[in-house]
Every structure is written in C-alpha cells, then in structure tokens.
C-alpha cells in the first residue's frame, strides 16, 4: 500500500485523437463537462501528492487542469506518440520526488476514485511494483508504477507507453464500463 501523498498522478492529455476526427476529443462535452476533466477530477479527489497533466500546446484544458492543482507539462511533439507524453510526465514525477506514478488517460472518463485507491492499496515497491487495472483479465491503464521503473518508462517509444511492463502487473479488476475509453464521436453517447 502506498499513500496518495507519496505518488505523482500523471494525466496524459496530449493525444492527437486521430480516430475522433478533426475536433479535440478531450475538450468535447460529456455530461456538460469536457471529457478529460472527468479524469482530472478523480485525480483531484484522490488528493495525490503531485498532480501532472501532460497537454498539447495551446490546450484549451490546461487552465482547467491548473485550477485543479495540476502542474502542466507541454508536449510540443504529440506526433511522437503516447510514450513521449508518458516520458514527460514521468520525468516530472521523478523531479518531484514521487515514490510511484499513477498514470491515467484523459479519454477514460468513467474511472472512479475508489478504483484508483484500490490500485494504491495493491502496490508494494518490491512485490508489486506495477499495479494495473484489469478488464476481463487484460491489464490496462490506469496503472501505478514504482519509482524503480521510471527510467524504463522514460525510454519507451511510440504508442506503447508502459504496456511492456503491464504483463507482470498485479491486477485490480474493474467493470468494463468503468474502464471504457472514448475513441470516436459515437463513444460519447
């Protein structure tokens, strides 16, 4: 178990959203609130020691994230893939001295704070340095990574992110609907 104050919560919100079309999916309303703000609010409810939002340049949501206590890291090269955003967020977590990083995706609006707490409860830096969400037994974000893995996460490339580390993760199950992500406009319905 790790306490929220000891972690950095990293919200990845700089994706290019190619399957969504020309609009910025993270700013699209869901229940009257921009999509990525749902995940940001769950992080705020968790009261993580450090909150980091990795955003694209000129993100319309950066100000909203900052009002929720997030430090903003700008990803000027989102075309380099998810791993580049992850590396920026993990670097900020390392600089902040976090003992672990909880990584969430901005397009997963239904994850509950209770699930995030369950990920923290399953963490052990030696026995379970990676704790991941599981939908039908498949490891996925949100996921918690021990500081000992920060260099590996910073060195990943493309759209793989921390996926290679998820194979050995301790899994915390959640309903499929809670772990759903928004990829296309139809998903907002």
TrEMBL record:
The keyword Nucleotidyltransferase applies. GO terms for molecular function: nucleotidyltransferase activity. It holds the Pfam family NTP_transf_3. Keywords: Magnesium, Nucleotidyltransferase, Transferase. Gene3D superfamilies: Spore Coat Polysaccharide Biosynthesis Protein SpsA, Chain A (3.90.550.10). It comes from Sphingopyxis indica. SUPFAM superfamilies: Nucleotide-diphospho-sugar transferases. InterPro entries: MobA-like_NTP_Trfase (IPR025877), Nucleotide-diphossugar_trans (IPR029044). This is Molybdenum cofactor cytidylyltransferase. Transmembrane segments: none annotated. Residues 9-168 form the MobA-like NTP transferase domain.
